């Protein structure tokens, strides 16, 4: 049949065109079969096109930035024609299905080949693969294009083990990079690939020091990544680990502070992966080439033209030499299994939620709630009584694991005017967050008859911290936790509402804001080492604070937060004691937003208020909208959001929407939300 090239053969915007590659296809021309790989930015399927087996890359297009990116990737792919670069066969560059069709490459990608199949290439095979790749990159650079994501996972293999450079999702013309400054670096597409999929492993380890310092990516930054790749192929070792398989590297690097330390070491201390040892038989000229490629100073790195010349001459030297020497004699057998047994026991089988619950049960006395000093003390029955609805949303976001936890405790102790809400953002594992989300509400309920709200909150944080660390220690001694230097922690924010009084207790970098008369009022301080007061407090308490890479960090663990539950290697400097604000609520107050730092990384206080202004004021919907928006704006963390809304505010807004929205579907939608809101209100206070 053959594929028809349309006239005009352009994308829907008209910015991409090609003489040889059809840019739109009739739906009958192709079909998608099963997915082969799910990346951060796309899903790759096996498919059929015009009767031929193909790989179909379907980019995730959720924002208009993503669409721009699609067109940029397409423009570049249309320009390329080289035997060392994956072959684009056709494209569907029109809505609703934006699809790239590539030649299908049977073999696993180079990363899987080395780490999953544990393939030991011979020196000659290493030379062949790196030479072909270098030629492809030389071609690319001659066109003025930088790839920006050179790594083994982006190298596909043909039947004869020929390498094909793939994934132009981050490639750009160098001339366009000139305008990118550190400010918009974030949105200009930092290497994402493995970033999310395999945490930082896929990419951080290939990033040149200048990129880690957030400077502009040049062709010489590709050379750096290529140097790391060459060494990885030679040693069979995932960079910066002494291990062979990627799954293990993932564990080594998955904890935030290790990433930070690694970044610091690469940037400031010139740390690089270990070169192969003497027994490997790697030619010394090859090792010296690798060293030059990953030189700290980009100016000392060779260009790909130099690299091609070098590799060809090393290849010439070796002509006639046998190529059967196994590459990693020292990495077989017991070394591997020992390491994997000893080092990977982070996620122990302990159920930390259960542990927290047990603790909270121990703390509570059965009739504790009968008398309630909190309500009695505010005996002013004329006081303002807000009527609240609440909703939450929490997402793993672009991370692989979820370390946030939370609790919602409305009508606490069966009192309709007392509500408590808490967010816990775990780091170095989820254990502390899971424990605290159970322990703290239990503790609060147990203390409402005996302590003031402020004392109860303070004690809840401090006691939960002590108890958590005790448990961890206990498990460590009983050998249930094998990892001696595992120090999980979490930041936490708890809002306690007692009639018209709002108490916000905060330790760490979760944040709570109140929308008062349309403007955000911040009710908590971010406890991070970049805050001078906190830094000084940590130092006074005997902790160490150092500037590392891009910000101030505490202790050898390089923690950015200065208060937390857990983190027992940093106690007492990283304290669990919360700062507590007390606010008297008035009819001016519309809603409260609480969020883990994943929300606030991407949205400012006033942006949050702005987004809620444009959202139907249903608490769960607003929470979801905020989290989704934060992900779309590049937050790469777990995100938990609570919205706690006052009836009048939501009512007024819903009315407003009903008046504004004229079309039928819109009316229907707002009506259903209105009904839902009414139901919530009557559930939370039948008399109101
Ligand atoms: N033409 C192809 N033939 C066979 N497999 C392919 C092909 N293209 C891609 N793949 C598989 O899909 C994976 C992801 O492809 P690619 O890197 O292009 O997508 P991505 O979404 O940009 O991924 P990443 O998360 O690494 O950025 C590859 O590592 C490879 O395993
Ligand atoms: Mn990729
Ligand atoms: Mn990619």
Terminus-to-terminus distance: 71 Å
CATH class of the largest domain: Alpha Beta
Q: Can you identify the CATH superfamily of the largest domain? A: PPM-type phosphatase domain
Shape: globular
Rg (CA only): 29 Å
Residues in β-strands, percent: 15-25%
Ligands:
adenosine-5'-triphosphate, manganese (II) ion
Compute the number of helices. 23
Unreliably modeled segments: 180-202, 243-257, 322-347
Number of domains: 4
Tally the beta strands. 23
Largest sheet: 6 strands, antiparallel
Helix content: 25-40%
Task: Write down the CATH topology of the largest domain.
Answer: Phosphatase 2c, domain 1
Q: Mean of residue pLDDT? A: 83
CATH level-two architecture of the largest domain: 4-Layer Sandwich
Please identify the structural class as seen in this structure. Answer: alpha+beta
Protein name: Protein kinase and PP2C-like domain-containing protein isoform X1
Pfam family, one: Pkinase
InterPro entries: Kinase-like_dom_sf, PPM-type-like_dom_sf, PPM-type_phosphatase-like_dom, Prot_kinase_dom, Ser/Thr_kinase_AS, Ser/Thr_Kinases-Pseudokinases
Keywords: ATP-binding, Kinase, Nucleotide-binding, Transferase
């Amino acid at each position: 049949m053959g594929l028809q090239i349309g006239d005009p053969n352009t994308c829907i915007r008209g910015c991409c065109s090609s003489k040889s590659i059809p840019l739109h296809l009739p739906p009958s021309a192709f079909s998608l079969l099963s997915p082969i790989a799910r990346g951060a930015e796309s899903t790759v399927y096996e498919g059929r096109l015009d009767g031929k087996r193909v790989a179909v890359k379907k980019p995730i297009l959720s924002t208009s930035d993503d669409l721009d990116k699609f067109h940029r990737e397409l423009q570049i792919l249309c320009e390329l024609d080289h035997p060392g670069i994956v072959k684009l066969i056709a494209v569907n560059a029109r809505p609703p299905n934006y699809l790239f069709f590539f030649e299908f490459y049977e073999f696993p990608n180079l990363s899987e080949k080395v780490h999953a199949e544990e393939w030991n290439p011979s020196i000659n095979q290493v030379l062949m693969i790196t030479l072909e790749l270098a030629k492809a990159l030389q071609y690319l650079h001659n066109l003025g294009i930088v790839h920006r994501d050179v790594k083994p996972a982006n190298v596909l293999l043909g039947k004869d083990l020929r390498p094909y450079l793939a994934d132009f999702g981050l490639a750009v013309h160098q001339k366009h990079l000139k305008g990118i400054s550190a400010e918009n670096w974030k949105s200009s597409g930092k290497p994402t690939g493995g970033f999310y999929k395999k945490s930082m492993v896929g990419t951080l380890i290939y990033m040149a020091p200048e990129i880690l310092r957030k400077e502009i990516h040049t062709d010489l930054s590709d050379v750096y990544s290529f140097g790391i790749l060459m060494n990885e192929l030679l040693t069979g070792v995932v960079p910066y680990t002494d291990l062979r398989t990627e799954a293990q590297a993932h564990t080594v690097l998955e904890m935030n502070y290790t990433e930070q330390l690694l970044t610091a070491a690469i940037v400031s201390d010139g740390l690089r992966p270990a070169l192969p040892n003497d027994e490997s038989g790697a030619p010394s000229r090859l090792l010296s080439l690798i060293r030059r490629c990953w030189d700290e100073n980009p100016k000392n790195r060779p260009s790909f033209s130099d690299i091609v010349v070098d590799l060809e001459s090393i290849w010439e030297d070796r002509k006639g030499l046998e190529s059967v020497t196994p590459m990693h004699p020292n990495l077989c057998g017991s070394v591997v299994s020992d390491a994997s047994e000893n080092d990977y026991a982070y996620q122990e089988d302990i159920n930390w939620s259960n542990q927290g619950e047990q603790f909270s049960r121990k703390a509570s006395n059965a009739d504790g709630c009968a008398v309630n000093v909190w309500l009695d003390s505010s005996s002013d029955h004329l006081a303002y009584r807000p009527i609240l609805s609440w909703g939450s949303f929490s997402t793993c976001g672009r991370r692989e694991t979820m370390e946030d936890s939370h609790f919602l405790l409305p009508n606490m102790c069966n009192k309709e005017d007392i509500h408590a809400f808490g967010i816990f953002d775990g780091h170095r594992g989820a254990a502390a967050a899971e424990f605290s989300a159970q322990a703290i509400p239990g503790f609060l309920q147990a203390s409402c008859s005996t302590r003031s709200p402020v004392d109860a909150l303070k004690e809840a944080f401090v006691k939960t911290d002590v108890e958590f660390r005790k448990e961890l220690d206990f498990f460590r001694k009983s050998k249930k936790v094998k990892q001696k230097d595992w120090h999980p922690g979490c930041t936490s924010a708890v809002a306690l509402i007692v009639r018209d009084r709002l108490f916000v207790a905060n330790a760490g970098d979760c944040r709570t804001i109140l929308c008062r008369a349309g403007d955000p009022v911040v009710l908590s301080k971010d406890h991070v080492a970049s805050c001078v007061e906190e830094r000084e407090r940590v130092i006074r308490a005997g902790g160490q604070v150092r500037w590392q890479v891009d910000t101030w960090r505490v202790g050898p663990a390089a923690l950015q937060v200065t208060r937390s539950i857990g983190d027992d290697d940093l106690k007492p400097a990283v304290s669990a004691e919360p700062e507590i604000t007390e606010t008297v609520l008035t009819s001016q107050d519309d809603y409260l937003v609480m969020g883990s730092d994943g929300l606030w990384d991407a949205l400012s206080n006033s942006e949050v208020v702005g987004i809620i202004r444009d959202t139907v004021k249903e608490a769960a919907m607003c929470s979801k909208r905020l989290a989704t928006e934060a992900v779309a704006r590049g937050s790469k963390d777990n995100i938990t959001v609570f919205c706690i809304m006052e009836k009048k505010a939501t009512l007024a807004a819903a009315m407003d929407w009903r008046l504004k929205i004229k079309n039928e579907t819109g009316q229907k939608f707002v009506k259903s939300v209105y009904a839902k809101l009414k139901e919530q209100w009557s559930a939370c206070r039948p008399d109101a």
